[in-house]
# Entry
Amino acid sequence: MTDTTHYLIVKTKDKKEITYFEYDKLTGFKMTSKNKNIKLKDAINVNKMVIINPSLIEKLITKKINQKMKKLIDLLANIYDSDEDDPAGSLMMALNEVEKFKRELLNKYLDYMSREQLKLLDKKIQILEREVTMHAYILNERREEIEYETKKSR
# Structure
């Protein structure tokens, strides 16, 4: 017989108490640990957490989105700075990453974000998409000019 009791630990200034909740009926932001193989002696191993506090959810989501946005911008900067044989392929990969980021926002965080946050992120994503496509067009035009000049000189 397995014990499926779930706990919520609440700490206040005056007293410490453990309150029991029906875990399956709680709605909140679900988080899992990145490193599932960590086992500590004399410690509670946590596999999954459900955050219920709306302000904490907002802060966590904002932090995660900002980290992913920074990684995406760094990826785009590296692609722009690199001298590859096929920069258009890298730009298409970057455009796919932007689209993946947009879908991830809609699938994971839509329920926890306000309209203002969604509008702001949508504008940021549109700017990134526009920059990537514009850079791809510029590279494509340069390649066509070079091909035209080499064909013309022959």
In short: The first helix runs from residue 54 to 81. The chain has three helices and four strands. Strands lie at 7-11, 16-20, 29-32, 48-51. The CA atoms of residues 62 and 117 lie 9 Å apart.
